[in-house]
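Objective 1b: paired records.
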Amino acid sequence: MRWFRLLAPVLLLVAACGRSHGEPAGADAVPAPAPDSAAPSSTAAELAVLDPCALLSAADRSTAGLTVPGERRSIGGAAACDYTEPGSFGVTVTVDGTSGLADLDVPGDAEPISIGGHDALRVADPAADDGTCAVLVAAGESASVHVDVSRTDFTGTEDACRRAMTVAELVAPDLPGGAG
C-alpha cells in the first residue's frame, strides 16, 4: 500500500474546526516543530513558524472547495492541518521542516512538476483510480509541504489531483525557497 493511502482513514475521521488567518491558536493547536539545537538553515527556521492551518485563508478554502476550517494535527512529528468535507473528501496540509523532496520515499511514478516557482512532485496512481493524490512541494533543500487529498468513495484520482494541485498552488506563495 502506498504511503499516501495511509492517511486516508485519518482524513475520514477528523472533525472540522480551526481558524482563519490572524485568529489566535486554540488550546488544541499543535506547536510548530522546534528548530534543531544546531544552527538551522534560514529556510528551516522560516518553515518552523508556518502554521499549516493558516496557509489557507477563508477565500483560499472556498477556491479549493473546502467549506470548513481545518483541524491541527501532528503527523510523524510534523505540523499538519486536516480539512474534511463529510461524505466527500479530505485534504491534509503537512509542513515537513526536516525532509526535502530528495529525502522523501516516493514511488517511482511520481511526476516532477513546478508549483509557484517551487520544485514539486505529483504522486498518484491513475490506473488504480483510488481517489488519492499527493502534491509534495519543496520549501528549500531540506524542507517540504505535502498536500494530500483523499476522496471518501476511493474513486476519482483525477479529481483528487486537481484539488491537490489547487491547494498546492494556493499555499506555495507562503513557502520559503521558491524562485519567485
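Objective 1b, second protein:
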Amino acid sequence: MNFNLLGQHHRLIIFTFCMIICTFVTTFSLGQLKDVATYDFADLLGEGGIAAVTLMWITVILMSRPAGQLTNYLVVGLVFMHISVLADFLDEFLFYPPEQLWITAYESVPAPIGMLLTTYGLYQWHKEQVSINQQLKKREQSFREHQSIDFITGLYNGQFMKAQIERMIERTSAKKPILTLNC
C-alpha cells in the first residue's frame, strides 16, 4: 500500500468523513440513548465489525489506487454501504420516537445503492486488470524474444544458438536409432 496515493484523494476522504459525521449527527439528534441492559451485544459485535471492515476496505482502496472514476465508484459505493451499516450499528444504542421511523430508511436504502456502485466498480476493475495482464504478457514475450538477440549485430546470441543445436540433436537422436555393426 502506498500512503502517497492518499494525497490524490482529498475529495473522497472529505466525502467519507462528512457522510460518517452526518450519520452520527442524524442518529444522535433523532434518537435517545437506550439503557445498557437492552443492548444486543451480538448485534453490536456483528454490525460494528462490518462497519469497521467496510471502513478498512475504503482505506485500502484509497491507499492502493490512483485517483480516477473507477476509484470513485469503489469508494463511494463502500461509503454508502458503510453509512448504512453504521446507522444500523448506532441504532443498537439509540431508541427512536415513533414519529422518527424514517431513520430505518437511512439504515436500509444506502446499502443496495452502495452495493450496485461497488459492483460496477469491481467489474470495471476486473476489465482494467485483464487489460494490464495482456500488456504485461506482451511485454514479457517481447523481452524474452529480445533477450536472445545480440544488441550490436542483431543476430541470435551464442546461448540461443547452443540451445537450438542441442534441441535439434535431441530431436534427431530420438527419431533415428544409432546404427551399430555386430562383428
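The CA atoms of residues 6 and 164 lie 51 Å apart. Strands lie at 32-33, 94-95.
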